[in-house]
Write a structure and sequence with these properties.
This protein is mainly α. Helix content is 78%, strand content 0%. It folds into two domains: 193 residues, Growth Hormone, Chain: A (Up-down Bundle), CATH 1.20.1250.20; 197 residues, Up-down Bundle (Growth Hormone, Chain: A), CATH 1.20.1250.
Amino acid sequence: MGVLIPEVLRAERQFARLFVGQSLSILGDRVSFVALPFAVLSIGGSAADVGLVTAAGLLPLLVFTLAGGVWADRLPRQRIMLASDLVRCAVQAAVAVLLFTGEARVGVLASLMALFGVADAFFLPASTGLLPLLVPADRLREANALRGFVQSSSLVVGPALAGLLVAAAGPGGALAVDAASFAASAAVLARLGAVGGAGGGAAVGADGGAERGERLGFLAELRVGWRQVRSRTWVWSGMLAIAVYHVVVLPSVFVLGPVLAKREWGGADAWAVVVVAFGLGSIVGDVCAYRLKPARPMAVAAVAMAVASCQALIIGSGAPVWAIAALEAVTGVGVSLCFVLWETSLQVHIPERVLSRVSSYDHLISVALMPLGLVLAGPLSDRLGVRPTLFGMTALAVPAALALLALPAVRRLPASRPPTGADEAPERPEPAPGAAVGA
């Protein structure tokens, strides 16, 4: 990425501190993702128990993500993230202690993971909303690309590190490392101090109205966020396209890919080659996102999503494993490029005071709908066959991405926000049905 230390890290010291803390936390999460199933199995749990504990961590995301968006637009976002990190640190430390002492039970682990999921639901919208307060608009793409680089790299490094930790110290030791990563992230957030912007209390808009929404009720604030989504064609259409990707494409990776690898490719080793290749491609995509400066970022994101949506076709192609791995690396480039440009576009064009609420709708759609695809993929493949199901996934997903590209609002969205603020929807609740509207 140019020099040893990227310019955005040298120029933006607060972001640099946050980047270090979040990098450690992301790596810890990748370790936990591998270690947690082994933790359940180590206490005599079944495959169903593994699913129960995993689902317990995801369900709160569906329930609390929108609330997390509202509160992240009300309160200082770094404080919400700090509280979330402390809770998640305590949860992982408690799980580690229970495993070390032999007191862990499936029900207790599921309860702790549910608490973890609640903290996660508040962290995600706050994290998206905090970045524009730390980094100038013209450097947001670079900052998001660096974060994506860490996430992609951890996909390669994290599982290997987790395997070493589980072998050396057991699942409890691996989860203790995750707890330590949250502690490190919390320490960094505590040092950020006050951050300017709307995340720190009520502000007054130019029209004399409250920008923070603290004069509104909770549901009214949610409606304000939803109006910001539906008033912008590129936002709601982008969210729909991302939902199609999560529901249709990702099951080919998480469910049907491993099935095909076991049946025809020789097992887990062959699948690992494909997964690592995808991770390496994702790293390349993040580097591209850091270096490239597209004038129409959402148009590039739509093309990248169309490339990423070919994963099911590639997996089911019947090509040699090395060829599948090479093509999956290309889709990895597309995935990283698409999501860096998408998140940057939200941060640039959505008013900062409502950004966390809009982000919470984005996270909700991704998290809420993905389990639907994961549940349906297996039965559909049993009924239609694995390869026809994979080809059908591609036939649905690629046109959805191309339809996004066909929209003028997507193709023409500029990289920077118009100085007039013409793309900003006013932040005020809609009148109740039947209410009179004055002149």
